[in-house]
């Protein structure tokens, strides 16, 4: 179904850089592919990741059928969802956790996942209404339907950043077209190949591949694939509206209702569905730690005066017009009199302009969308839609706001001319026409259009400068919050995040644990082998810790040889298991440099949030006490402390002295 060569995709997979599931999600996916997997065995694996448990139950209860008992356990969720849905949910949530950022400068990773989340929730709602797919599987299709964009940003960060920069400034270009020019493949092809490789149903990969063309030629109308394509197109457009700037949302509403009509969904029903989607988006955003936006009700957006009432808003915002060659305009002539059209065509062609003709206002509306004229010369009195109504309608749409309009009329009444100017006319000419006067008015119009284009170029330059400034600010912010040696968050970032997680855990009564990790006898390594070797040790240790911990855990370097790991939705027992895994992984690593081979170990202190603690600093301090206990007991150990009514209670430790 796709044009991506299979051998080429296998080569991309072999590179190891394609986005892929990690940790517990990978174990779930592998297990669900077995024919002999049991629900109890799968449930046991899932329970090792408390964050996934919460998300799985949330997905099961979202949009719950009326009368169905809310799901509260993993076993019930597995029964309701079935293995395919659980596998794809694990895949999606793992990718969100693992690929929250990356090296592609112009790719908005947070925005990508937030927009994909809207599409996922919308697909779930539309699947439930149309019965075109199991709702939870449709959720995953919406979440992963643009995964090819993330893959290209991951595979080719610098080159894809250039492509994204190009799409910002080159109007009329499509992202897929630029991708094919740069990489000989586009995100639709790569998405379809990845979904198929992950074992999603073939119908999902086909739908993702054809979504941007809405499957009009690929699938017969009314079939299940056709319904899925329409639902996915609506879902992604709802996502576009949610992520758009406040002042642009109302201009996008007409097209939403047009897309909804393909599924025979009326505007009122679709608006109500979209309001439920945005509410769920905010709830899911908090659960997945993704930024969301405040979106007014869709009914309000539909009634906003800025929404075009006649012409649907275009999918891609364009500049006023293409650059005008010297002394050449694209001119639309609108007149119901054939002889007048011929006279104007001859005069304009003699001046070297490109001429389009329409016989009435309705025809001119359609033609203006296709040819995007710089200037329109229109008669006043015409059947179906007169010149003033045509101008008034065009001025409400983006395509007509920058158009220079010349009205041709035999009426010389002053009040009528004032009415024409008030409705958007730029200039007028009286009949009969004079070639020299027409040429002079065309030159005057051309000067105005050129000034408009200069203003638009200045605005584009300012937008480009603002985008570059935003990128620079993000880089500076990253530098301010990142440890340059390990790439981890630094102490300042860790303390800010600890405060956020503390507040969230307190507010929602969820568990929160913390680890403080210290490299054993690191000063001796520095003193014996020098700081270069010491830096190498820190990099190797940090990489090992990152591999051993989970995607949801926040790891930071506190300074020197000390690290901290914040573990949301994690109790003390689970945190101890994670800490022991990290200790074991570090212990097993051999650090080589030249002829030197070193083995190092870490001591880890663990603590869990307790009601007696006052402030996030108390949790860090308790973990630090656990670290002291591990060091005291011989290093290369994991030890935990927990606050109790009579002070600090020391728990047992694991590891070897």
UniProtKB/TrEMBL annotation:
Sorted UniProt keywords: Phosphoprotein
Signal peptide: none
Positions of the Response regulatory domain: 330-446
Catalytic reaction equation(s): 2 GTP = 3',3'-c-di-GMP + 2 diphosphate
The HDOD domain, residue ranges: 18-214
MF terms in GO: diguanylate cyclase activity
EC number per UniProt: 2.7.7.65
Regions crossing the membrane: none
Biological processes, Gene Ontology terms: phosphorelay signal transduction system
Pfam families reported for this sequence: GGDEF, HDOD, Response_reg
Record domain GGDEF: where: 510-643
InterPro entries: CheY-like_superfamily, Diguanylate_Cyclase, GGDEF_dom, HDOD, Nucleotide_cyclase, Rev_trsase/Diguanyl_cyclase, Sig_transdc_resp-reg_receiver
CDD domains per record: GGDEF (cd01949), REC_OmpR (cd17574)
PTM annotation (4-aspartylphosphate): residues: 379
Record keyword Phosphoprotein present: yes
NCBIfam families in UniProt: GGDEF (TIGR00254)
Protein name: diguanylate cyclase
């Amino acid at each position: 179904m796709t044009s991506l060569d299979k051998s080429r995709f296998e080569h991309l997979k072999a590179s190891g850089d394609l986005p892929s599931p990690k940790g517990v999600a990978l174990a779930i996916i592998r297990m669900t592919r077995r024919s002999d997997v049991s629900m109890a065995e799968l449930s046991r694996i899932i329970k090792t990741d408390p964050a996934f448990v919460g998300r799985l139950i949330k997905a099961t209860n979202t949009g719950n059928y009326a009368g169905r008992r809310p799901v509260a356990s993993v076993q019930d969720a597995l029964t309701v969802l079935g293995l395919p849905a659980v596998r794809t949910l694990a895949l999606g949530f793992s990718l969100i956790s693992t690929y929250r950022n990356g090296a592609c400068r112009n790719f908005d990773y947070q925005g990508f996942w937030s927009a994909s989340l809207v599409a996922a929730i919308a697909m779930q709602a539309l699947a439930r209404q149309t019965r075109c797919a199991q709702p939870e599987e449709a959720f995953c299709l919406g979440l992963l339907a643009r995964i090819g964009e993330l893959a290209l940003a991951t595979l080719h960060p610098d080159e894809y950043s250039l492509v994204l920069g190009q799409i910002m400034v080159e109007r009329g270009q499509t992202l897929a077209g630029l991708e094919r020019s740069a990489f000989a493949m586009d995100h639709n092809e790569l998405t379809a190949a990845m979904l198929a490789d992950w074992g999603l149903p073939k119908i999902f990969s086909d739908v993702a591949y054809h979504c941007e063309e809405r499957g009009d030629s690929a699938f017969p109308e009314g079939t299940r694939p056709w319904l899925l394509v329409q639902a996915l197109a609506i879902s992604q457009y709802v996502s576009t509206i949610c992520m758009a700037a406040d002042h642009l949302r109302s201009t996008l509403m007409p097209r939403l209702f047009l897309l909804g009509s393909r599924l025979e969904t009326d505007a009122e029903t679709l608006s109500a569905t979209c309001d439920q989607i945005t509410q769920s988006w905010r709830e899911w955003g908090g659960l997945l730690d993704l930024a969301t936006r405040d979106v007014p009700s869709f009914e309000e957006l539909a009634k906003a005066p800025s929404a075009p009432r006649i012409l649907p808003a275009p999918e891609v915002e364009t500049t006023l017009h293409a650059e005008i060659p010297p002394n050449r305009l694209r001119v639309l002539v609108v007149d119901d009199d054939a002889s007048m059209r011929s006279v104007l065509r001859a005069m304009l062609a003699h001046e070297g302009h490109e001429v389009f003709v329409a016989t009435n206002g309705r025809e001119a509306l359609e033609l203006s969308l296709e040819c995007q004229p710089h200037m329109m010369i229109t008669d006043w009195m015409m059947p179906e839609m007169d010149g003033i109504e045509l101008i008034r309608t065009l001025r409400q749409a983006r395509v007509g706001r920058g158009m220079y309009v010349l009205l041709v009329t035999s009426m010389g009444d002053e009040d009528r001319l004032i009415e024409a100017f008030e409705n958007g006319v730029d200039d007028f000419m009286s009949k009969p026409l004079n070639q020299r006067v027409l040429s002079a008015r065309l030159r005057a119009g051309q000067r105005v259009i050129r000034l408009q284009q200069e203003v638009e170029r200045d605005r584009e330059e300012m937008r480009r400068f603002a985008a570059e400034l935003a990128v620079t600010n993000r880089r500076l912010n990253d530098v301010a919050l990142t440890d340059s040696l390990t790439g981890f968050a630094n102490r300042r970032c860790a303390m800010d995040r600890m405060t956020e997680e503390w507040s969230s855990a307190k507010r929602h009564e969820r568990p929160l644990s913390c680890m403080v990790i210290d490299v054993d006898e690191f000063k001796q390594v520095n003193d014996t082998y020098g700081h270069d070797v010491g830096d190498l040790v820190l990099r190797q240790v940090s990489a090992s810790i990152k591999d051993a911990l989970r995607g949801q855990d926040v790891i930071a370097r506190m300074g020197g040889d000390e690290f901290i790991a914040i573990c949301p939705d994690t109790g003390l027992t689970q945190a101890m298991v994670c800490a022991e895994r990290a200790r074991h992984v570090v212990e097993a690593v051999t650090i080589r440099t030249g002829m030197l081979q070193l083995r190092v170990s870490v001591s880890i202190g663990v603590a869990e949030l307790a009601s007696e603690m006052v402030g996030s600093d108390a949790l860090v301090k308790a973990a630090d006490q656990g670290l002291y206990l591990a060091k005291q007991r011989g290093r290369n150990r994991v030890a935990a402390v927990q606050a109790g009514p009579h002070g600090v209670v020391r728990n047992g430790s694991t590891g070897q002295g």
